[in-house]
Design goal:
Blueprint: H1 2-24, E1 28-37, E2 40-41, E3 45-51, E4 54-61, E5 67-71, E6 76-82, E7 89-94, E8 105-113, E9 130-135, E10 140-143, H2 145-151
Parallel strand pairs: 1-8, 7-9
Antiparallel strand pairs: 1-2, 1-5, 3-4, 3-6, 6-7, 9-10
Length: 164
């Protein structure tokens, strides 16, 4: 009897472990975002996550470490980054993917640069600093180059030195 109970307990543990592993591998877009000012990581900032223009979550980052957020596919998100004394930053995320990609797991990393303006300035972002969406040419998520060019907010790219 003890052997049967021990076997059932082990089967249950394996089942629970596999279930937890599978829930981590769910389809969606996992973003890793960090916030900095002049190449120095910031801490004690807030991220407000809006889904289809309704606030769904708030994250308070106490440490200067990247924040990981799991987003569902085929939704519209707006992330607002706020820290007292700093200009608010907004990112638009469109997680729509082509048919057949709904069960895939995607990842995307980015860094938000915030600018200090003093305490209680009341300055808010009037336009998003970037739009992130699925890029059919890459087959993955990327920032919208069209939006970046329209706002003049083109990310700096590292260029390999030319060989002569």
């Amino acid at each position: 009897m003890k052997k049967l109970v021990l076997t059932l307990f082990c089967v249950l543990l394996v089942h629970i472990a596999c279930g937890a592993r599978n829930s981590f591998l769910n389809a969606g877009l996992e973003i890793a975002c960090s916030v900095s000012e002049k190449n120095t990581a910031l801490k004690e900032y807030s991220i407000f996550i809006f889904v289809d223009d309704t606030i769904s979550d708030t994250i308070f980052a106490e440490l200067a470490l990247p924040i990981y957020v799991q987003l569902d596919l085929n939704r519209s998100y707006r992330l607002e980054f706020m820290k007292p004394g700093y200009m608010e930053r907004v990112i638009i995320l469109n997680t729509n993917v082509p048919e057949g990609k709904e069960r895939k797991r995607f990842t995307y990393e980015f860094e938000i640069n915030m600018h200090f303006h003093g305490n209680d300035t009341g300055l808010v972002a009037v336009a998003p600093v970037a739009v992130i969406q699925y890029d059919s040419l890459l087959g993955d998520f990327n920032y919208s180059t069209e939006y970046a060019q329209s706002t003049g907010n083109i990310p700096k790219m590292s260029v390999a030195p030319s060989r002569r």
